[in-house]
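agent> step 3/5: call structure_predict on target 'Hsp20/alpha crystallin family protein' (Haloarcula onubensis).
agent> reason: downstream docking stage needs a structural representation; sequence fetched in step 2, passing through unchanged.
tool.input:
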Amino acid sequence: MDRQSPLDSMESWFEQMSKQFETAADRWGTGIEPWGEGMDQPRIDLAEDGEQYTIVADIPGFGKDDIEVYVTDNTLAIEAEQREEMVTEEANYIQQERTHQSLSRRITLPSDADTDDISASMADGVLTITVARVEPLDSGHQIDIE
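tool.output (status=ok):
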């Protein structure tokens, strides 16, 4: 009688795991690639001057009606979702990838950001958000030790 050892199938098991890791790496990336089609976070630039913060986000392919910008608990959220209508006429697609696209990004605002004074504009796939700055409520003070 021929007994099968658990070690006999170990090589095929490692090959299967290796293929799964390669598939996952192809799908998710290594984490160091820049944002590109199919990824879920836009790249941003955050700048400041004495009066405001400016956030510029690249959101190609989205219109301003596809995008929501809101603030909750001093966190600025950018969310976008776009659904393409499926073609109902007879079509012989070889590949169809444009049916749904979404992204989101959360940015913690600095403590001197005025969350009541925020504006946003969109042009050519670039979202620009300005957040006014306020003077800190308390600049601090010395505490005497008893």
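agent> step 4/5: record observation. Residues 29-39 have pLDDT under 50 and may be disordered.
agent> proceeding.
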